[in-house]
Amino acid sequence: MADEKPETLSIVIIGASGDLARRKIIPALFALYCQNLIPGPFRVFGFARTAMTHEAFRQMASEHLTCRYVPHSRCEDRMAEFLSRCYYQEGQYDSADSLLDLYRALRTEEGSVRAHRMFYLAVPPAVFLGVARAIGNAGLVECGGGEGWSRVVIEKPFGRDRATSDVLVEEMGRVFREDQTYRIDHYLGKEIVQNLMVLRFANLFFEPVWNRMFIERVSIAWSEEQGIGSRGGYFDGYGIIRDVMQNHLLQILALMAMEEPTHYDARAVCDEKVRLLRSIPPLTVDDVVIGQYRATERKDQVLPGYRQEVQVPPDSRTPTYAAVRLKINNRRWEGVPFLMTAGKGLSHRTNEIRVRFRAVPRNIFCGPEGTCLEPNELVIRIQPDEGLVLRLMNKVPGLGMELAPTDLNLRYAAAFPVQIPDAYECLLLDVLKGDRSLFIRSDELAVAWDIFTPVLHALEEQRVEPLPYAIGSEGPV
Ligand code: NDP
Ligand code: BG6
After folding, report:
1. What is the DSSP letter of 180?
2. 79 pLDDT band (50/70/90 cuts)?
3. Cα 17 to middle of ligand 1, angstroms
4. Residue 243: CB within 6 Å of ligand 2?
5. Residue 2, pLDDT above cutoff 50
6. Does 248 participate in catalysis according to the annotation?
7. Same-domain status, 242 and 329
8. Domain count across the chain
9. Taking all residues of the chain, what is their mean pLDDT, rounded to a whole number?
10. Within this chain, do residues 193 and 151 fall inside the same structural domain, yes or no?
11. Residue 59: CATH number of its domain
């Protein structure tokens, strides 16, 4: 938006009545608005099948807005200003007439100035293609008063396997070019995940030890306390490997293991991630353990198991837990296992990366029976309580020579007393700026599916029974 020509921005949320729109997208837009980060005059258009007036939509939109970025005394005014820019249009997702109505509503508000448009497809995957085609057919993509940009944001899951993902990419590509397409993996917007490249490439001392000679293994663990809740209909068709591993955790792995990009720009970073992912051989059933949470009693209350959740068949074998071992066939990582675990209905919520270094060779402080102390470990805590911990061996102060592992602990809350933005704030701002560094390119998506598709198919074809674990436990034994 560099030149002086008057312009406007329309942010269209398709599926605006849904959970994602209400909990994440609209609050993130409000947070950007409070920081004056949404350029120029803009409007938010909600579109969905539910009947709602503009007022009802504004009421719904206000539910999750927070005053994190403005003083409380001014917050109500800012909310009122923001909500007055929100409009709602009811319609069917694949109906040309409905989308033409939306088109007219946009044109009326945009006037004759140059209009930029961002479409956010916050609908279940089954609806993606129908709505994208209808958007294209209604002329919404290219008819923004001339010369404006159009961008589309889509949420995972991007297909169920390599083949369905390819179809989605190809069909979406008939409406939006690749450079107009922003495939969100919201973990890439998380503060600590964005810090991974900085940690590795802006510090001198990691690179010399960041390889098979010094690192024994890398583990990426992810867990949530709650079960599936109301998302059974979606989750049962996907399972934890597709829901979390093939995307969020694999992205983290790629950033941890890739080579240094030639520049810090979207293309160079993505090229390196793709190169790394191509070095990972497809998983087999032997590389994977799956589990499923079962009912348990807690304080006079029965917590339902996965098979009792709404919209989940009573004989479902969909995994709610998985542990996988990945290999990276390149010179840096040959022989170093990359372990991933992910589970719902576990004892606590966490996401952390552990880099375990090798033991010191011929350590002069090893005990008489050859027992050695723990090797160094770097722990990168993505959530909750973001931080970095480096476990070092130290002499315990005192007269003897007693050694103990001690932590150098960098807690974000203490080191950076600022508001940590929500991932969606960061990602939506990047879409507005046209920066695709934190989004998934189509070739990257394809290789990510190549790693997981064979094992997903094998688990389904062999109807592998997941190991049971009690909800709220540490997972399967
Ligand atoms: P919802 O299930 O809440 O669906 C969004 C809207 O789509 C609903 O309000 C409904 O609107 C419409 N809809 C729902 N089911 C159908 C259907 N079978 N056919 C047609 N329309 C339907 O989804 P979310 O908002 O949770 O998620 C949207 C997308 O984002 C999904 O792809 C999801 O996987 C992804 N996602 C969501 C996350 C979250 O935290 N919620 C996190 C990461 C990804 P109406 O009936 O008014 O048309
Ligand atoms: C989503 C998954 O992509 O990420 C959910 O579909 C999961 O199952 C969610 O709960 C976790 O996101 P966050 O940001 O709360 O860790």
Report:
1. G
2. very high
3. 8
4. yes
5. no
6. yes
7. yes
8. 2
9. 93
10. no
11. 3.40.50.720
Domain that holds residue 263: 188-420+440-470
- The stretches of 205-249 forming alpha helices (DSSP H) are 232-236, 239-240
What does the alpha-carbon distance between residue 157 and residue 303 come to, in Å, rounded to a whole number?
A: 28
Query: Does pLDDT of 14 surpass 70?
Result: yes
DSSP notation for 279-296: TSPPP-GGGEEEEEEE-E
**Does 141 share its domain with 195?**
no
User: Which residue reads 């970095």 in tokens?
Assistant: 388
Residue 235 · residue 318 · CB < 8 Å: yes
CATH of the domain at 375: 3.30.360.10
On the question of pLDDT at 39 being above 90, the answer is no
Question: Does the pTM of the predicted model rise above 0.70?
Answer: yes
Q: Is residue 429 part of a domain?
A: no
Tokens encoding 249: 């955790």
pLDDT tens-digit map of 427-476 = 999 999 999 999 999 999 999 999 999 999 999 999 999 999 999 999 99
Closest residue by CA, ligand 1 atom 32: 124
Ligand with minimal distance to 189 CA: 2
125 CA distance to ligand 1 middle (Å): 8
Rounded mean pLDDT, 290-302? 92
Cα gap 81→83, rounded to integer Å: 6
Is residue 116 assigned to a domain?
A: yes
236 vs 144, more confident: 236
Residue 31 forms part of a structural domain: yes
